[in-house]
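Technical appendix A lists one of the benchmark inputs used to test multi-chain prediction within the project. The record comprises two sequence entries:
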Amino acid sequence: MSGTPDIFEAIGADLSAAQTKKRRHFIPAIVIVAIAIGGLLAMLGLRSDFASMPAWRQASFVASWFVCLLLFPAVGVGLWFPSRGQKVALATVGVLLPVTATLGWPIVPAGGHAAGPCAAMTLSVGVVLVGVGAVSGAFAQRRSRSSTVWVATGLALASLVSVSCACPISEIDHLVFGHFAPAAGLAALGVLLGRWLHARMRG
Amino acid sequence: MERYVDGDRRAFERLHLALESRLRGFLIKLVRDEAACDDLLQLTLLKAHLARDRFRVPGGDPDGAVQAWYFAIARNVAMDFLRDRHRKDKRRATSANEDGPDIVGELPDQSPNAQEHGEKIEAEQAIVEEVRAAIERLPPKQREVVELHKLRGMSMADIAARLDVREGAIRVRAHRAYKALARLLQPKKRPLLGYDDASTEAE
């Protein structure tokens, strides 16, 4: 580095400026997503048993928001570059946290509650979130197409957590068909949409 | 390199650290001017930075591709510098002989005009594309050896150690690969009277 400080610093500054610009671009998108989720929770209200939940479960919900809405998209749009090991850890924690928060402990056996309304809600919220991601250009920020997985999964998990925060039913059949399955489908559709947009925007 | 292209400053710093001394050695070898080498190195890094979106990994060896890409840019920068220096030397010789007979001026101008220069660059690019396409058509094992040997400048012994294959086998692969390349790059034999297979098939 000794002989080339000028260009080294100039390139570093250029990269930092590009990152700052990218950050500024995505803050409004995150704010819109937060408003959409806040609106949903204001409309439906927090689940009635939220206050009486054990602290670990409440913490899991809060951590899920942080991981799904900030960390996953940050990796997807190239604002954070974790190592391979960190990525594996983040993906594991990022999926386990919302699932654990939604399931709770002990797992409640099947009770026959209808899954339709929650599935529709998860899909509706998810479509709005993925739509915001698509319009903001989040799916085509990085060269690698695998970045779309981070964005789509983060947004799908955020919709799962949103609905789980509002729905008080903890029966396993309801959670599987009304919460987890729609969120998984949404993530898959988000990845497909993201890849299509990536191919369109980056060629 | 992918991370650097996506805007990771630390990835650029690591890449710079890994390549700087090798690029400097390469440039010194080409221009034999230590004083100019720093400027040329800076120019190489700047050109690579500005063109970083165009970087592609052609084979299965990303490290080799990055190195080959930087070295190709460094080579072009060095060639431009040498051409420029040659022109300046020539001009200086001309002005030094102003009072006496202009011996250099009487010599035919060897430097190409803009059109010839453009045609030369196009022809060179066509050759590069042709060679690249021919390398792509080689079987993967042979292609790997050619890339490591010619693009990364590794010795047969180093390639053998890296691929964990006997050196003799690597030499056989290289021999076959170069033979195949020679066959692929042979100028196509044009039939007499403009008659060829394609036109026959079209008929």
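Chain B touches chain A at residues 2-13, 16-17, 20, 24, 37-38, 41-42, 45-46, 49 (CB under 8 Å). Chain B has a mean pLDDT of 79. Comparable benchmark entries are summarised in Table A2.
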